Amino acid sequence: MRIIIFHYHLNPGGVTRIVESQVKALRETNPQIQIKVITGGCQDTQVFKNNNVALVVDSALNYLSNTEGLFDKLESITTLLKEEVKPGDVLHFHNLNLGKNPLVT
């Protein structure tokens, strides 16, 4: 089984600390579990590397600040999900309904 955690971004702050805590808790519970984090941006990748977590960054997942290039962003997100998510994966969307990127929400 593989667990995939999604969030718009992993900028310094509360959300990143929570995702890091989730990764550490999963790793402590089952050291062999495969974990992947998919996000729109991550300034500090070291915590994830230290915990053997695959990290995928695609800026199309970040907060949507304007409507320019919506189709291209949607296509990028769709392609990313088709490539990265496989049958049997457990998906956890952190704050999915925040509404900061309607293409994701």
List descriptors:
single chain; 105 residues; alpha/beta; Hypothetical Protein Ychn, Chain: A; 4-stranded parallel sheet; 3 helices; 34% helix
Task: Tell me what you see in this structure.
- With 105 residues, the protein is of the alpha/beta class.
- The protein has a single domain (2-98), classed as Hypothetical Protein Ychn, Chain: A, CATH 3.40.1260.
- The protein contains three helices and four strands.
- The protein has helices spanning 14-29, 46-50, 70-84, and strands at 2-7, 34-39, 54-57, 90-93.
- The chain has a four-stranded parallel sheet, with helices on one face.
- It is globular, with a radius of gyration of 14 Å.
SSE series: EHEHEHE
Order the strands across the largest sheet as they lie in space: 3-2-1-4
Helix content: 25-40%
Q: Biggest β-sheet, characterized?
A: 4 strands, parallel
Strand fraction band? 15-25%
Q: What's the architecture in CATH terms?
A: 3-Layer(aba) Sandwich
- The total count of helices amounts to 3
Average pLDDT, all residues: 87
CATH topology: Hypothetical Protein Ychn, Chain: A
CATH classification, class level: Alpha Beta
**Counted beta strands:** 4
Indicate the radius of gyration in whole angstroms: 14 Å
How many domains, in number, for the residues? Answer: 1
Which structural class do you get from the secondary structure elements? alpha/beta
The unreliable regions are none
- Quote the distance from N terminus to C terminus: 25 Å
Shape descriptor: globular
